[in-house]
Every structure is written in C-alpha cells, then in structure tokens.
Amino acid sequence: MAEHNPAECGVMIDAATTVDRDDAVWIEPLGDGFEVWIHIARAADHVRTGGPTDTEARARVHTRYRADHTRHMLPAPVVEAVSLTPDHPCDTFTVHLRIDPAGRVVDAELGPGRLTRSWTMTHAEAATAATDPAHPRHDTLALALRFAQTMLAARRNAGALAFYDLLSGFATNEEGQIVRLDSGERNSGYIIVQEFMIAANSQIAAWAVREDLPILFRNHRLAAVAGDPAELRDELDAVAAAGDGAAFEMLRSRMKMVSRAATYGPTVHGHHGLQLPVYTHATSPIRRYPDLVTQRILLAAALGHPSPYTPEEIAETAAHVNDSLDAERRAKAEYFKQRAQAETARHVQAADFATLPYKQFSRVLQFAVERGDAPPGLAADTARRLDARELQLREFASVYLYGGGEFAPLRERMNRRLAREPQQAQSVVNVYLQDRLGGPVSNETNVHWTVEPEPAYEGPLFSARVALTYGDTRIESPKRLQRNKKDARNQAALALVAMLAGLPDLSADVVAKPRVDVQRKLLVDAAVNPAEAVQIYAARGAVEGLAWEFSVDGPSHERVFTCTAEGRLRATGELAATEGKGPTKQAAKTAASAELRVLIEAGLALGETGERSPA
C-alpha cells in the first residue's frame, strides 16, 4: 500500500532563482503506461475579476524577466500567497491524465485539487535525480523522464517541430523557432518540465473543446512557404548531427523567417509548431494573464458555474493580449537594432576585428558591405575566417554578392572556392533571393528548375537550368550538362551566382560525345537495376517524357507506396504506363520500372524488325 496519496504529491522543477512557483508534477506507473498529475497554482482564488490587481495584471499581460530585475505581473504579496510552497497544503487546479505506453492520452480529468506533499528542484537537480538510483526522488524522476521521452517521441512522430540539443544549448520553442537555453536548462530536467506542461495545456484545450467551452486558445500557423514541419525537423536533426555551424545558422534564420507568432483567440485554429489540433496556455497563471483568465473559466465550469466571461469579452481580451505582445516584440526589436548599430559603429572605429566574437564580427562586416566602405583590416580578417572555415553562409554570401573595394581579391577567392564546392551555390542563391524578397523564399514561385535527360549525347547525361523570379524580374542561368541531376543543378547554380555577383563563370559542362544514330546494340545489361536501366534508356532516347508519380495509402505503420511510371516509346510511338507497389518509394519505383523496362525492350525489338503496333 502506498505511503502517500499520489493525487496530492508534486515536484516543482524551476530555475534556481524562481520565486513564483505555479506548477508541480507527479507520476506513477500504470501498467506499461503512466498516471500523471499536473498541479497548477490557484491564482484565480486570489485575484478578483475586474478588481485593481486584475486590472494591473491585464495591463502588464505577463511577468517580464530582466538581467537585473523582474517586473511581476502580480503584486509581490499576491505572488507570495499564490505560489506553491513545499510541504505547505495548497489548493490547486489539477490535470489528471492516464497515458498508454505509446504516449496516447486514454483518460483526462480536470478540476480542483490539493497539494499536500511536495518538493522543489532545479532543472539540474531533477536531471541528476532521474539518473541517480541513490537519490530519494529517483523513482519518480526516472519515470518522469521516461514519460517526457515518450511524449516527445509521440509528438515528433506526429510531425511536430520538436528539437532539443542540450549539448550545444539549443531547442525549438512552441512556435518552431530555435532558441538558446540558459545554462541551467541544458539538461533533461528542462525536457521533463516542457513535456509535462505541453501535455497539460493540450489536454485542457481538448477538454474545453469537448465541453464547447470558449477559453483563450493558443493558435499558431506557419507561413505558407515554410514546408512540412517534419521535413524541417529532419533537416534540423541532420544539421545538428553533422555539426555544420554555417548550415545550422542558415536553417535557424530560415525557420525564424517562416514561423509566425502564435496568438490567442476564443476559437480553435490548431497549433502547427507543436502539431496539435488544439492548445492553450493554462499552466502559468501567476506569470501570464491569459492563463489566469482561462483558469477562471475552467474552475467555474468544473464547479458547475457559468463562465465569468462572455464570448465577446474573451475575444476582446485575446485582441488586447495579442496587440500588447506584438507591440512589445516590435519595441524590443527596435531597441536591439539601435543598440547593435551603436555597438557596431564602436567596433568599426576600434578596428581590432580579430578579437571580435563572431556575432559582433558579423554585424561589423554587414555594416561595411552595406556602406560599401570597408575599414582597414576587415577584409584581411574576413579572409582569415574564411580560411579557418569560420565564415558562415550569410557573411560569405554578403561579401561574395555585394562586397566592393578591398573585398575584390577575396571575392575572387570565394568564387574559386565555390567552383571547388559547387554544392554551396544553391544556398548563396537563396540568400540573394531572401535579400530581394525581404522574407522567405518559395520554391514554387521564386525558384524554377528545369532538369532533363539529354538523349542527343552519349549518356546518361542531364541538363539543368535555374531561373529566379521576384517582382517583375526574371534571371536565368545558362544550361549545364553533367552525368547526374545533382551535379547538373550545382553547376547551373554556380553559373547563376557568378552572374549575380558579376564574377567570372567557373561552372563547367561534362565532356560528352554527341550520339551517333546508327544501328547498334541498345539493350542495357540485364544485371542493371530496373530503375537505372529505364533512366539509361531515357538518356539514349529510347523512351521520351519519362516520369514517375507516387502515392501512399495505409496507416503510418503499414504504408503502401504506389509508383506510376510513364513514357513514350520512341521505337513504336506508343505511350507506355506501368504501376508498381511496395513498402517504400524505392521498392515501388523498382517494381514499376521492371515492367516499363520490359515494354521498352520489346519496343526496341519491334523497332529493329520494322514492325509497329496497329494505330
């Protein structure tokens, strides 16, 4: 028999400096799953709706943390009275969840609760307890970490843009932007807190929807050009694993550009950053005004009372909070912009560039490139950082595309490096377009690739050309020929960036011999993979207009891919179409290609004998 009532126990995991503790968590095993309690401080009991404290909290919107002080949303005596205190009985609003081993919520109960036995921990202490069997809270924190990992995996499998790199100190926030973690958060204790709070907020929102109860929902949308969040997450994982600093910064900038700020509203529009159908903020009522408003509504509903707010009042509160946060973001951006400009000007005057941290060096370099006037020594230090592989994509592209005066010799070197590493050229193209568009690049409307097999040459051989469109402007690269599509694209991009920068075009075509259209053996060796064989036949001109299309059916754990291959047989003039299925795209493509290969080779045989199918 348990020595404690788990429904009244909790661990408060916060930063070491936290004084406004507004949540606590507890967990017990439930078969192979979990039974979870999230306790939230009952701030609504201490702040009267419409009273002076509430009016001030509404004006402040949220607690603001500064390096030298904290500006609390609520007055200090109220913060002290509301905050959860270790081993001090506290009334709470409680979210009680039962979770299966796959991270699915099988039952959720919300309502008034009570916390009678509790402990405080920093993030680092929670991380230590999770891995130290000798720690008195080890069993609970180890299970909490397993729960957090299970919930994180379930969200990632659903396509959420969820990423924690505790070694480098980066993580994605709920809006899909990459943020830097404080030193005290670079541990598994931080992940535990995040996943418990996400679980609580999402289930509160889901409960409100089931009850048809208007609250302040948290809605988030990505820009239309952002792409699939799952693909962005996979790209982020790959960049982090490779340790490529330049690619990481480029991706970080791109994710910041395509992410939109989440907003509050009385209706549900989904949360794309978290890949959740509904979401809210309800776990920090001491620090966020929307959480306080939502808690009042939830408590009233749980007790069978009418909502203290009309739908119109909720909508008006949402608009006020959204406007206040937007104004705060703009003021903050302007403040940091002005401070950065003043700091940059000081560094330009000091002219000691080699000692600058990279972030400050980047500002100085951009400042100099935009003015078209590089101070003595900056070009030399930029070249040093280039040689040391420290120069990141944004700065490389700025100097390469726009650098003048003292940067001229360095730009020639950069041009030669791109010729050696043409795979970087497409990234420079994206930077150029972002500068012209003032925002994200769309591969649908701004970048147009033409990649085709070239049957006029001994193959296989492919041509590629890229065109950029922005406003009324269209810029097109020359066509480049290579043995595979990837190399052809890289060389076309290389030719284009040289054109944009006004530098010599160092791109190249592969040496190829024109096809001699004489009677010769056309059949591809039988040992060649069917898909590759079909591609070779296309390059030789035996099949024209070759195209593959894919579709997928079935549940995520048992997907079936279908590939349709189509092309016109040159020997007979017939349109050939085949279909293949398989558990992967490649397997389906191979199956479809095997059938198409038979038709191609049959057509070649007919062509050699002069026979044709009836029209």
What report would you give on this structure?
With 615 residues, this protein is α+β, with helices and mostly antiparallel strands. 43% of the residues lie in helices and 20% in strands. A hairpin with a 4-residue loop joins strand 4 and strand 5. It starts with 8 loop residues before the first strand and ends in a 6-residue tail after the last helix. Residues 6-304 form the RNB domain. This is RNB domain-containing protein.
Short structural description:
The chain is α+β, with helices and mostly antiparallel strands and 615 residues long. 43% of the residues lie in helices and 20% in strands.
How are the SSEs ordered, and which strands pair?
Blueprint: E1 9-14, E2 23-30, E3 33-41, H1 52-60, E4 64-65, E5 70-71, H2 76-82, E6 90-99, E7 105-115, E8 117-122, H3 123-131, H4 138-157, E9 164-165, E10 170-172, E11 178-180, H5 188-210, E12 217-219, H6 229-242, H7 245-258, E13 263-265, H8 289-302, H9 311-350, H10 358-371, H11 378-387, H12 393-402, H13 408-420, H14 425-437, E14 447-453, E15 462-470, E16 473-476, E17 480-482, H15 485-501, H16 530-539, E18 543-553, E19 560-569, E20 575-582, H17 585-609
Parallel strand pairs: 1-8
Antiparallel strand pairs: 2-3, 3-6, 4-5, 6-7, 9-10, 10-11, 12-13, 14-15, 15-16, 15-17, 18-19, 19-20
Helix pairs in contact: 3-4, 3-5, 4-5, 6-7, 9-10, 10-12, 12-13, 12-14, 14-15, 16-17
